[in-house]
Amino acid sequence: MSPLQSALKESPHLAIWPRPHPTMKPAKLNILHLIGNLKVGGAQEVVRTLVDYQAQNDCRPVVCTFEDGPLRAPIESLGIPVIVMPPRRHSVLAFPWFIVEMVQYLHHLTRLVKKYQIDVVQTHILGSLDFLIVLLRLTTPVRVIIWTFHSAHFDLSYADLPNHKWLLKPKIGGYHGMYRLLSRLVSRHIAVSDPIKRSILKIIPHAEAKVSVIYNGVDMPRYGGPVDRSRLLVELGLPNDAYVMVMVGHLEEQKAHHYMVEAMARIVPAQPRAHILFIGGGRLRGELEAQVSLLKLTDHVHFLGIRRDTPALLAAGDLFLLPSLWEGLSMALLEAMATGLPIVASAVSGTVQAMTSGQHGILIPSGDIDRLTEAVIYMITHPDEARAMGAFARQRVAQEFSAQRQAKEHIQLYLQLLD
User: Fold this and answer.
1) pLDDT tens, 36-74?
2) Residue 181, domain extent
3) 91 Cβ partners below 8 Å, 6+ apart?
4) Which of 144, 261, 262, 401 could be stapled to 187 by a disulfide with Cβ–Cβ 3.0 to 4.6 Å?
5) 144, β-bridge pairs
């Protein structure tokens, strides 16, 4: 019996319309995942993992993106279609070209939904394009539209207005108004953690009954496998006795790399074996490299850029760091826990839901360099306790944050909404 059939057997009222004959296999669900881009990132990895496990559970997922990226190939290798839309060229201020562009997008998406006979449309990090997707209710027979929120900070910021910063406040007002208005036409909002649900309800207070929390899931078999640590250390130019700390994430303000560099200036004199790997690219790299050089830490802070061997690098590490100023439910955190690494992280949003301080690692106040330094030194000087925390962390992810569980909870929600 397939997972979808099992769900129908356990909950007969969830059956897809039209209700299948008892001797027939239920029709597969056709799901369109719309995502802003396919760069290397947490939300993108959520989509890659989700479509993989949905395809294994009697679904036919399709991915559509507005910007190509490195994750396109891994998704296509699963046999899942990936459609790349033309990139956006016009802001809302470029009237009437903005309207023309939106009409073109709606036309392309309408054809896509009809071609693949889509039952469910689910969006991820689309920003204002979330509002356009709602119009598919008018142009297609699609019955379920879902907005997914991956971060507690999904609002506009100055970074979204490089040329017209004075428009930020009125644009935020319009943004909030559109969310409140159009959310009534959306079937469900998915938050990847409870704190994100609270953030949604601050902007869309009437949506309480429409918000479902489904945690991100980790593809467990990819993490925690054996690795040739000595070989990796040689390739990275690190000494064999190095204590390896890992940070995975874009080099952006949110991830607080600059705080970590300041902490390293205090950690290294006390623990000269300490090395940190910054995995990921971003606009702050030059600024961070200058900070590292100024503090004479170039031998201890290593910028690896975007890597495709992150699971192996995690497996070669001793400690995972996530001193972020804010988070949704960090995929990098869950992947590190799945690897069996102990964690030092700031106590923000979904992080506090994923881990317990003292059991899976140490939680610190966001932006507190003193506490960050103390926590790292504690982990280095208490290796047995740190290893035990890592083991508990892996067990926690396997039980609560697996990709299989995430996919099944999505499918169950689709069935409820289609009934």
Assistant:
1) 999 988 899 999 999 999 999 989 999 999 999 999 999
2) 3-217+402-418
3) 98
4) 144
5) 120
